[in-house]
Specification:
globular; 2 strands
C-alpha cells in the first residue's frame, strides 16, 4: 500500500506541476501568432477547401449535369438529387458493396491502430527506462527503418504470408480465414518505427525522480509502466492513435496488395468504382464523401489531442 500511495502521489505531483508551463506556451503562441499569419492561414484554408466543396456539390447533381456543366453553375442548373449516393451504396464490385467495404475499413483500421500502439508504447518504455546492452544501437536501427520505403517490404511480406507463418508460428494461417490478419500485420510493421520514435521522445522526458521514487518503494517495471508512464503519456498516445487511424483508413497502397475479395476496404472499392475509363466518376464523388465521414468526425471531435500531442514536452526545461 505504501508503494502504491507513493507512486500515485508522485504522479499527481508531476501532473499538477505541468500547469506552470502554460505561461511559457502562451508566450510562444503570442510570438508565433500575428494578424497577417491568421489572414494567410484563412486564405490557404479557403483555397484548399474549394476543390472539396466542388466535389460535394457534384455529388448531389445528376450525371447529365455533371458531364455538361461545372459545379459552380449548380444554382443556375437546378436539379439536386441523392441518386448518386443511393447508386453508390448499392454498387457492387466483385460481390462487395460500398457499405460492406465501409464495414471492412473499420475491421481493418481499429486493430491496425491499436496493435502497433500497444507494442510501440511498451517498446518506447523499454528504450527509455530499461537498461540493457545494445539499447542505443537497437533504437538507432529502429529509427533508421523509417527511411526504408515500404515498397521494399512487399515481396518479403507476401512470401511470409504465403507460408502462413510468422517467425515459425502459424499466426497468419490461424487468422487467415478472417482475411484481415495480413493487413493488420502489414500496417503494424509499417507503423511501428515512427510510433516507437515519437513515444520514446515523450516517455524519456518523464522526470527521472518520479521513476526512481517508484523503484525505491519497490515498484517493478509493470507498476511503473501502468501507474506512472501510461497515465502521463496519454496525450502522446492519443495523438499518435489518431494519426495512425487516419493513415490506415485512407490507405490504398497496402489495401491493393494485401486486402483482396470480401475484405477490401472502402478506399480500394472507390478506386474501382469510377470504371475502367472513368465513365462513372459521378459515383466517385458520392463515394468519396461517404468515405471521409469517419476521418472528418475523428478530426472534429478529437482535434484537441493533435495539439496536445504535438506540444507535449515542448516546454520542458
Amino acid at each position: 500500500m505504501a508503494a502504491t500511495e507513493e507512486i500515485v502521489a508522485s504522479t499527481q505531483a508531476v501532473t499538477t506541476a505541468r500547469p506552470s508551463q502554460k505561461p511559457v506556451l502562451g508566450d510562444t503562441k503570442r510570438r508565433l501568432t500575428s494578424p497577417w499569419a491568421t489572414i494567410a492561414a484563412l486564405v490557404i484554408a479557403a483555397i484548399w477547401t474549394i476543390p472539396t466543396f466542388g466535389v460535394l456539390v457534384s455529388s448531389f447533381r445528376p450525371r447529365t449535369q455533371i458531364e455538361r456543366t461545372g459545379w459552380w453553375t449548380a444554382l443556375q442548373n437546378w436539379g439536386w438529387t441523392a441518386d448518386n449516393y443511393i447508386e453508390a451504396l448499392s454498387t457492387s464490385t466483385g460481390g462487395l458493396t460500398l457499405l460492406g467495404a465501409f464495414v471492412n475499413s473499420f475491421a481493418i483500421t481499429l486493430p491496425a491502430a491499436i496493435i502497433p500502439l500497444i507494442i510501440a508504447t511498451l517498446a518506447a518504455y523499454g528504450f527509455a527506462w530499461v537498461e540493457f546492452r545494445g539499447r542505443n544501437l537497437l533504437f538507432v536501427l529502429v529509427f533508421a527503418l523509417q527511411i526504408v520505403p515500404i515498397q521494399m517490404a512487399f515481396i518479403p511480406l507476401l512470401q511470409l504470408f504465403s507460408r502462413g507463418e510468422l517467425f515459425g508460428f502459424p499466426v497468419i494461417q490461424a487468422f487467415g480465414s478472417a482475411g484481415y490478419a495480413q493487413v493488420w500485420v502489414a500496417h503494424t510493421i509499417f507503423g511501428l518505427p515512427l510510433a516507437i520514435f515519437l513515444l520514446h521522445n515523450f516517455i524519456s522526458q518523464i522526470p527521472g525522480e518520479v521513476i526512481e521514487a517508484a523503484r525505491v518503494d519497490g515498484a517493478g517495471h509493470g507498476q511503473i509502466f501502468f501507474r506512472i508512464v501510461l497515465p502521463l503519456s496519454m496525450p502522446a498516445i492519443a495523438s499518435f492513435a489518431i494519426f495512425q487511424f487516419l493513415w490506415v483508413w485512407n490507405d490504398l497502397l497496402v489495401a491493393l496488395i494485401f486486402a483482396d475479395g470480401n475484405v477490401a476496404p472502402i478506399t480500394k472499392l472507390l478506386a474501382q468504382m469510377s470504371g475502367s475509363r472513368g465513365e462513372d466518376w459521378h459515383l466517385l464523388t458520392a463515394g468519396a464523401f461517404i468515405a471521409i465521414i469517419v476521418p472528418l468526425l475523428v478530426f472534429l471531435f478529437l482535434q484537441r489531442y493533435f495539439v496536445r500531442g504535438l506540444l507535449a514536452g515542448s516546454a520542458k526545461g
